[in-house]
Design a protein that fits this description.
134 residues; alpha+beta; 4 strands; 50% helix; globular
């Protein structure tokens, strides 16, 4: 039993380290988004970047995902999609479906929309929050 927990803990620490490195190597869209949302700048929401989500498959197995941005208050994940996501849409959908099983909502935005149409992104986020609150 101890071995399984140690192995899972080691895996979590490895994933967390990877997430930290990803924060330092962010895309232009991720940097822009972060500047717009950090320090509760977006509707007073607390948002984390490169947040590790643990999805427990069984007692022996936990799957870890790294969300681009995360808002715990609304169980909301923001994914920013660059060109690579055009080639892995099926993989992204499986990941999204799995994360949704744990109660999260995933909002996806193309990098270009983040950088060129921020007001539309803000509006979509605001509308989602308003629907959820009602």
């Amino acid at each position: 039993m101890l071995y399984r927990h140690t192995k899972q803990r080691d895996l979590y620490l490895k994933i967390r380290g990877f997430a930290r490195r990803m924060r330092k190597n962010a895309s232009a869209a991720e940097d822009f988004f972060w500047e717009k949302v950090r320090d509760r700048r977006l509707f007073g929401l607390k948002i984390n970047r490169q947040f590790v989500i643990a999805c427990h498959i069984s007692d022996e197995c936990t799957k870890y995902y790294i969300a681009d941005f995360h808002c715990h208050e609304h169980m909301l994940i923001f994914e920013l999609d660059g060109y690579i996501h055009l080639t892995q849409q099926e993989k992204d959908q499986i990941r999204t479906d799995h994360i949704r099983e744990y109660g999260y909502t995933v909002l996806r935005f193309p990098n270009e929309k983040i950088l060129k149409h921020w007001h539309e992104v803000e509006k979509e986020i605001w509308e989602y929050i308003q629907r959820k609150v009602r």
